[in-house]
Amino acid sequence: MGEFIESIQRIIALVERRQGIGDDTALNGIRLLCRHIENFALQQTISSFEGRWGSWTPYQDCGSEYLQSFSLRVERPQGGGDDTAANNIEFRCTNGKLLFGGGMSWGDWGSWSGQCSNGICGIMTKVEKPQGGVDDTALNNVQFRCCEE
Predict the structure, then answer these.
(1) Any residues with CB less than 8 A from the CB of 11 and at least 6 apart, and which?
(2) Deepest in the core among 10, 91, 106, 125, taking most CB within 10 A?
(3) pLDDT computed for residue 4 by the predictor
């Protein structure tokens, strides 16, 4: 993002809705909007690899604050059933506001990540490639990098 201090203040998620008949993948991707702390006109969207199904949810933001920690909702393997892996994500802003990823309600919420005292500045996702006619899961895990102290 250049030679200026950055913070991430907005999120958007790629979510495939319940398919009924067919393969569900749920959470397929996450994008974060980085903005310059002093000049909001300087901004850049960052993401990692994304699955190919679903639609982008509307942006959510922390206002003038930034993302501090997250929790991922994950469904355990279903055996012979339809696996989805990561289904939803929730972020906590430095002002205490919670942002929900707009995903599905399957599975359980994991523990909250450690807190990034200067916000979140990077993303890395684990995404299963399309399986070609068998059970797809898309996004399986995510890691975020804290901004440097």
Answers:
(1) 30, 31, 32, 33, 59, 60, 61, 67, 89, 91, 99, 101
(2) 91
(3) 42
Q: Which two tokens stand for residue 3?
A: 């030679």
CA angle in degrees (0–180, nearest 5) for 25-28-31: 165
Alpha carbons 102 and 94: distance in angstroms, whole number: 20
Query: In the chain, what is the straight-line distance between the N-terminal and C-terminal CA atoms, in Å?
Result: 17
CATH 1.10.10.10 applies to domain 6-146:
no
What's the confidence (pLDDT) of residue 58? 85
Residues in the chain: 149
The series of mean pLDDT values per 10 residues for the chain, 149 residues long, is 53 70 76 74 78 82 86 82 82 91 85 87 80 76 80
The encoded tokens of residue 32 equal 């974060």
Q: What does DSSP assign to residue 115?
A: P
Write down the pLDDT at residue 2: 43
The domain ranges of the chain are 6-146
